[in-house]
Structures are given as C-alpha cells and as structure tokens.
Amino acid sequence: MRWPWSRGGPAREKRDSGGDFSDAVVRLIEAQAAGTAADASSTAAVEAASGSLARAFAAAAVEGPAYAAGAVTPAFLAQVGRDLVRSGDSMHVIRVDRMGRVGLIPASSWHFEGSHDPDSWTVRATAYGPSTSTTWNLPAAGVVFVRWGSSPGQPYVGTGPLSWAHTTARLGSETERSLADEAGGPLAQLLAIPADGGDDGDDDPLKALKTDIRTARGKALLLETSAAGWGEGKDAAPKRDWTASRLGPVPPEALVAVGRDAFARSLAACGTSLALFSDADGTAQREAVRRWHLGTVLPLARILEHELSEKLEADIRLRFDAYPLDLAGRAQAFQKLVAGGVSVTEALATSGLLAD
I need a surface site. Which of 21, 158, 165, 306 has the fewest CB within 10 A? Predict the structure, then answer.
C-alpha cells in the first residue's frame, strides 16, 4: 500500500544547523543586549502548565490499529502537550522505516505553502539530529500538525495561550525577572571594624579574627569582649558592632504579590487551575483536577485524536481512565436518574458508569 504521506520530495540532510538556529541565536543576543531576554517561556507558570498537560497526555492509553498505536508513543504525546502550551502548535513528520513501522519524527521548524484550501498545502519540515538535519518537502497529509488555536488570517500557524494573553505573559516574565535580579544581588554579613582595620598583612591586628570568621562554618568562636570599645571607651564602640548586619535580597511585598497574581493569570490562560499547585484540601484538589481534565485535557485530546485518525488513516482514541475523575458526580447523576424512574441500565449508560 502506498501511504499518502510517503509522497513528496526526497529528504535532504544538512551538516549545518540551518538558518532557523542562527536566527534564534541572533535574536537571543539582541534581546540580551537590549535587556529583554526574559520571556514567558522561562517562567514557572508556563512550565507548570505545559508539564502538566504533557504528563496527562503521556498517561493516556492509545486505542487503534497496532501500526498506528505503535507510533503514538507516550513520548510523542508528551511532546505534543508541551508544544501546545509553549509554542501553540506541534508538528511531527510521518515516516515508515524499512521494516514497515510507522514513526512520528518531531519537526523543529516548518513552512507551509498553498492556497486557502488546506488540501492544497505543502510543507517543508526540518528535523535536527546531533550532527545533521533532515528536511522533507511533503503534502500536508504527510505530517501530524496540531494547534492550540489560530487566527482566520493564518490557519496554518498555531498560536499558544500566552501569545493570545501576551500582556499577562509580559507581566509574569517581567515580574519574575525583577525578582530574579533582586535575588541575584550581593549576599553578605557585614561586621563593623576599627578605622585601623589592617590590610590582612602580618601586622594586621584583626588578622586572627578575620581568619576565624572565614573558617567558622557554624563553630563557636572565643572573642574578646567589646565592652571597652576599640580602646576608646564604650561610647566609641557599642556592643552592636558585634551584631552582623545582613546584606541580601529583600524584594518589596507588592512585587511578590504581583508575581503570585501573574502566576495565577498565566495558569488561567493555559486552562490550568491554580488549585493544582496550591495547598488546598483534598476535595478542592480533586475538583480542580476534574475541571482541568474535562475543560482542557479532554478537548485538546479530541483535537489530537482527530488529526491522528485523519493522517494515519485509522480510528485513534486516547483513553484517560487511570483514575476516576468524576466518579462522585456520576454516582450522584445515576442516583437521581434512578430516583426519577429511569431504568438502572439506562441510568448507568447515561451517567457513564456502564462498562463498554
């Protein structure tokens, strides 16, 4: 059988990393020079949302023909989940090896061409290895392409959640960068010394004391009292001179609060509940998981199922039944249906408690 995704131009290998990598390096250097290198992808909120979706996808059981299910691996599912949140789209090139096994190769860059009709689209996709890169020219049927969302003017470009909510993304990235800059400041303990504090030479009167402090590492030190001051009386050197003054990051509480708010807003834009990462009680945690799964994971999984089924020419299903997400709600629905006169069998099927 000749698969539709086996048509198209031959693959080409290149020893260099291509213009995409070079452009990315140039953009990074320019951003660092301008002081704007921080972006939303480097924040904890994005990693929390993308990591959660990736792990949820990886836990799905794949149903379908053996050749298709063998290609839809947990690694593939996890990569798609992470890509959807971070970049808004994910592309994998469909390939068949010499043994006839179907594989899905992650593409790092691609370019579509064609008219308004998706059936006319062709794609130039590139995948990178440790030392070479491979580029394919394929029909759109030769790739698995999943998007978080897209604009009507560019249906061939995926747009991620924080690209839509770019103002919130900027708030989060700038706040976290400010906190990181604050935390990256000098950290030390300051001790007052006499005006003639010495120069660490052999005649330095504080040489032994300085050495003891540097090597203390939690040990007790026996020191001369400062009650008599530095030879000039108590008023000249109060006991407070022996109290170390800490020099370190003290971020404003307002900045910390904005950071927490930006974290929650970014999670909301990604369809992820803040309660998943808070110290809420078990009931709130379970409800947060249920809402996140039903409102984010399952809809995106349906989009992925449709793309896989169409491109691999098989009925592909992702099943998430590792734990009962909505068992309590289904049980209540079943009870109410039976109390309302619905037969037990019909109530079980309607509430989703009837096994297939």
Answer: 306
H or E segment to which residue 328 belongs: helix 327-339
Three-state secondary structure call for residue 14: strand
Q: Is the pTM here over 0.85, yes or no?
A: no
Contacts 24+ apart (CB under 8 A), 291-295: 292/52, 293/56, 293/320, 293/325, 294/325, 294/326, 295/271
Buried b (16+ CB within 10 A) or exposed e, 36-47: eebbbeebebbe
Residues of the chain with pLDDT under 50: 1-2, 14-21, 24, 28, 32, 34-38
Nearest C-alpha neighbor of 331 from the set 350, 354, 351, 346: 351
CA 187 to chain centre: 30
Distance CA 74, CA 17 (A): 27
The Cα–Cα gap between 27 and 32 comes to 9
Please name the residues in contact with 324: beta carbons below 8 A apart, sequence gap of 6 or more.
none
Q: What is the DSSP letter of 296?
A: I
Burial of residue 204 (CB within 10 Å: 0-12, 13-18, 19+) is: middle
For residue 195, the one-letter residue type is: A
Strand partners, 93: 105, 143
- CA–CA distances in Å: residue 205 to residues 228, 239, 244, 258: 17, 19, 20, 49
Which value, to the nearest 10 degrees, does the dihedral of the CA atoms of residues 71, 74, 75, 77 take?
80
Give the residue carrying structure tokens 């089924």: 309
Between helix 166-183 and helix 253-269 the angle, nearest 10°, is 140
Beta partners for residue 144, in sequence order: 92
The DSSP call for residue 190 is E
Q: How many residues does the chain have?
A: 356
Q: What is the pLDDT of residues 64-86, one digit of tens each?
A: 998 888 899 999 999 999 999 99
Pick the closest to residue 311 from 11, 46, 103, 16 (CA basis).
Answer: 103
Dist CA 95 CA 239 (whole Å)? 77
> For residues 33 and 54, what is the distance between their CA atoms, to the nearest angstrom?
33
Neighbours of 123 (CB within 10 A): 23
148 φ/ψ angles, rounded to the nearest 5 degrees: -70, -45
